[in-house]
Amino acid sequence: MRIHKFLAECGVASRRASEKMVRDGRVFVNGSASVIGQDIDETNDIITVDGKIITNTNKKLYIMLYKPTEVVSTSVDDRGRKTVIDLIKHDISQRIFCVGRLDYNTEGLILLTNDGDFANIVTHPKNKISKTYLARVKGGLLTKEDIKILRNGVMLEDGKTAPAKVYVEDVYNDNTSLVKITICEGRNRQVRRMFDAVNHPVINLKRIEVGGVSLGNLPYGKWRHLTQSEIHKILNN
Ligand code: URA
């Protein structure tokens, strides 16, 4: 990106006024005086104006976080509990917010952004963005009937759930099972309520995928920026 465009995007001045700042010798790139039309790398170069580092607070951010349990997926919590923003704020100074919610006791992939349009697209029910969870549930064996009900739709107090993908991944000796479930809705506590309805309450819940983008091997409690292709994948899901 050209230096004057970068300065304008950062809100320093208009493009024309930014060019004048460059011409007046007020702008430096990595310690060297900038020149008109100079191309800069906005992620790696250090740009200063009158000695002050300029960062692009308007830049759109798209982040995935491995939310741990016992963390709330809101920006502030009136009960003083740890929030997802607490896990990121040392590295990101821009105001960002969660795209959707995960329960306090649910772990896994949560998206954060400062792009309201992106958040609206991902959370709007009409767009049916897929979300995949691994649920450890009580009960050693889900019957074919249970699986059929979960797949075809469970009658909950707020209506029948839309068709879901459901696979039993494992059955353990302690009379619990691991079930992979993909839903395209985002109702409150939906997965827990679906399993409650078939008498297999959830013990642990982890979200592993949103819009075809997976958590992969991102460590517990850590975050990273989404790649361009991941952003497109989610928007085209
Ligand atoms: N469904 C739930 O029950 N809890 C979550 O956190 C997400 C989906």
Summarize it:
With 237 residues, the protein is an alpha+beta fold. Helices cover 21% and strands 29% of the residues.
List keywords for this structure.
single chain, 237 residues, alpha+beta, Structural Genomics Hypothetical 15.5 Kd Protein In mrcA-pckA Intergenic Region, Chain A, Alpha-Beta Plaits, 3 domains, 9-stranded mixed β-sheet, 6 helices, binds uracil
Polypeptide structure, described:
The strands form three sheets. Strands 5, 6, 7, 8, 11, 12, 13, 14 and 15 form a nine-stranded mixed beta sheet that branches. A four-stranded antiparallel beta sheet has the order 2-1-3-4. A two-stranded antiparallel ribbon has the order 9-10. Helix content is 21%, strand content 29%. The protein is elongated, with a radius of gyration of 23 Å. The model has no long low-confidence stretch (mean pLDDT 94). It contains six helices and 15 strands. 27% of the residues are buried. The longest helix has 9 residues, at 15-23. The protein has helices at 3-9, 15-23, 116-123, 144-152, 190-197, 228-235; strands at residues 27-29, 32-33, 47-49, 52-53, 62-67, 97-99, 106-113, 131-138, 155-156, 159-160, 165-171, 176-183, 202-210, 213-214, 223-225. Strand 13 (202-210) and strand 14 form a beta hairpin. With 237 residues, it is an alpha+beta fold. The protein has three domains: 3-53, RNA-binding S4 domain (Structural Genomics Hypothetical 15.5 Kd Protein In mrcA-pckA Intergenic Region, Chain A), CATH 3.10.290; 62-125 and 215-235, Alpha-Beta Plaits (2-Layer Sandwich), CATH 3.30.70; 130-210, Alpha-L RNA-binding motif (Alpha-Beta Plaits, 2-Layer Sandwich), CATH 3.30.70.1560. Residues 102-103, 106, 189-192, 205 line the site of uracil.
